[in-house]
Write a structure and sequence with these properties.
Layout lengths: L1 E7 L8 E8 L2 E6 L6 H4 L30 E5 L6 E4 L12 E5 L1 E3 L3 E6 L4 E9 L4 E8 L8 E4 L5 E8 L2 E6 L5 H8 L14 H6 L7 E4 L11 H9 L3 E7 L22 E5 L1 H12 L4 E4 L1 H13 L8 E5 L14 E5 L6 H10 L1 H13 L10 E5 L5
Parallel strand pairs: 4-20, 6-15, 6-17, 7-14, 17-19
Antiparallel strand pairs: 1-2, 2-3, 4-5, 8-9, 8-11, 9-10, 10-13, 11-12, 12-13, 15-16, 16-18, 19-20
Helix pairs in contact: 7-8
């Protein structure tokens, strides 16, 4: 493969923009090292979403969690090394004194509600986000999409939901519940297992589809990279002189939405609410100043930290509270994260694009094929990866 770099300087007070011209038989691409390089500047062939496809045997999609949280396998992908098979408890050996480990402390809401229309037709409501005392956004599955003004009911008939509008693929709903919406969902809702887990949720999922460090209610999908940790493993990591901090990113149902564009840069990323506080920012800066490493548990932590770095004007990273729609794909220049522990991600997904940006597209493809050949378990309840960021050439 032949590669050459063309540097384009578009000073925006913090970042310069770059293009890599990569020739690889038979395709070549140009990718931006900034988040939003104007399309008119690119002028070259762009990455296709189909470039992130891989074939996965259905039997490798994990339908249940392992017997114990730490019983998963671990595929290590370190810089300049071949994929290495390990067990998840071995991850403790990868930590060094002075490292900073960042977790996502979001807590999953029982966000799936089974219900019916006034006509009796079945509906399934999947919460996306609570927007007011009685208002929320949701996906609604039904034989025919409900119209504005139509009423929906949970199976227990306790609450009426009125459709008040639409936002893209989501419905705006208003409930006449007496308590809080959180309390209502906890009373009637089910754990929102992802669509590739082809079974109903059980009582076990209420515990296992939740991290042991979950605190802040708001997610409708688990930050699944964190499901592998138990308290004993976290204590072993702390004992090595590793600092542990948390951010919050409330994972939305949009995380499972397919990328419908043909070109990667045409995809419109969904927004998710994040909190990166001053304590986390101070920890990141102290870690970097000491020459130590920032380790993210999951793509949600990567997106949170990189979002806080993106909005910072004078420092490496600044506190940020609000929505982020950061879209990280090959060519992105990482500011914060050095190592990433994550799960295996769906073909053609934005999360697969993120890890490809982090560890290199070719290396990720090779690692995923290795995992398939070795019968690793994939997705939310599946096995884990631990990868080192590839330095930009």
């Amino acid at each position: 493969m032949f590669a050459a770099q063309l540097v384009l300087l578009f000073d925006n007070a913090k970042h310069s923009y770059y293009l890599d011209l990569v020739f690889e038989n038979p395709a070549w691409y140009a990718v931006s090292y900034a988040m939003f390089l104007p399309k008119e500047v690119v002028g070259f062939a762009r990455m296709n979403v189909a470039d992130f496809h891989y074939d996965l045997p259905a039997e490798l999609v994990a339908q249940f969690p392992p017997a114990e949280r730490t019983a998963s396998r671990l595929l290590k992908l370190m810089a300049d090394s071949e994929p290495e098979d390990a067990q998840f408890p071995d991850i403790v050996d990868e930590f060094q004194a002075g490292d900073l480990l960042v977790l996502n402390n979001t807590k999953v809401i029982p966000a799936r509600v089974h219900g019916k229309k006034e006509s009796g037709g079945r509906v399934e409501i999947l919460l996306e986000r609570i927007t007011g005392e009685h208002q929320f956004l949701a996906q609604v599955r039904a034989s025919k999409a409900p119209k504005v003004g139509q009423k929906l009911f949970a199976d227990d008939d306790s609450v009426a939901l009125t459709v008040t509008g639409r936002q893209d693929t989501f419905f705006e709903l208003e409930a006449n519940q007496s308590g809080s919406l959180f309390e209502w969902f906890e009373a009637v809702g089910h754990m929102p297992l992802p669509p590739y887990i082809e079974r109903d949720d059980t009582n076990d999922d209420a515990e296992r589809y939740q991290t042991v460090f979950a605190q802040e209610k708001g997610a409708v999908a688990a930050p699944t990279a964190g499901l592998h940790y138990d308290e004993a493993t976290l204590e072993k990591i702390r004992a090595k002189g590793v600092r542990i901090e948390t951010v919050t990113l409330h994972v939305g149902a949009g995380t499972y939405q397919p990328v419908r564009a043909e070109k990667v840069d045409e995809h419109k990323m969904h927004s998710e609410y994040i909190v990166v506080d001053q304590q986390v920012c101070d920890a990141v800066k102290a870690t970097k100043e000491a020459g130590c490493r920032v380790i993210a548990v999951g793509t949600t932590v990567v997106r949170s930290l990189e979002s806080a770095a993106r909005v910072s004007e004078d420092e490496l990273i600044s506190p940020f509270v609000g929505d982020t729609d950061i879209f990280i794909y090959p060519g992105y220049e990482f500011q914060i994260v050095d190592l990433l522990q994550t799960n295996f991600h769906l073909p053609e997904s934005t999360l697969l694009m993120l890890v490809s940006a982090f560890a290199g597209t070719k290396r990720i493809k090779q690692a995923y094929q290795h995992a398939i050949d070795k019968q690793y378990r994939f997705f939310s309840y599946g096995d884990a990866m631990f990868m080192e960021r590839v330095a930009r050439a």
